[in-house]
Design a protein that fits this description.
This protein is α+β, with helices and mostly antiparallel strands and about 110 residues long. The chain has one domain: 2-Layer Sandwich (Alpha-Beta Plaits). Strand 2 and strand 3 form a beta hairpin.
């Protein structure tokens, strides 16, 4: 992730007793973001409420995210997981203003 990238975040809420099924069904679709130009992705599950999920992916542009989100493969995955999550599902976009990480040689640029 680098400054200027777009972080797309989608908050999912699984329907009661469907959290495990949603996670298993959606993980491959979340990972498919890499096939559409994402440089990083994650599917996070809340430890406080196991029905809450955050999907994140880093793209160079909002348009690149839209190629992923509206792809037939991802639309089919949403349809296959229907009933495992509540709607509406709306992406939120953030522009990366800065990023850093610890590297073996010390702290990277902030």
């Amino acid at each position: 992730m680098k400054q200027g990238d777009i972080l797309a975040t989608i908050l999912w809420h699984a329907t009661p007793w469907r959290g495990d099924k949603f996670e298993d069904a959606w993980r491959p679709a979340a990972a498919a973001a890499l096939d559409y130009g994402a440089s990083w992705w994650a599917l996070l599950r809340s430890m406080d409420d196991p029905l809450d999920f955050s999907q994140m992916a880093v793209f160079e542009s909002k348009h690149a995210f839209e190629r992923y989100w509206f792809a037939e493969e991802i639309a089919d995955a949403r349809a296959a997981a229907h009933g495992f999550y509540e709607v509406p599902v709306l992406p939120v976009f953030f522009r990366v203003g800065g990023v850093g990480e610890i590297e073996p040689s010390g702290i990277a640029e902030r």
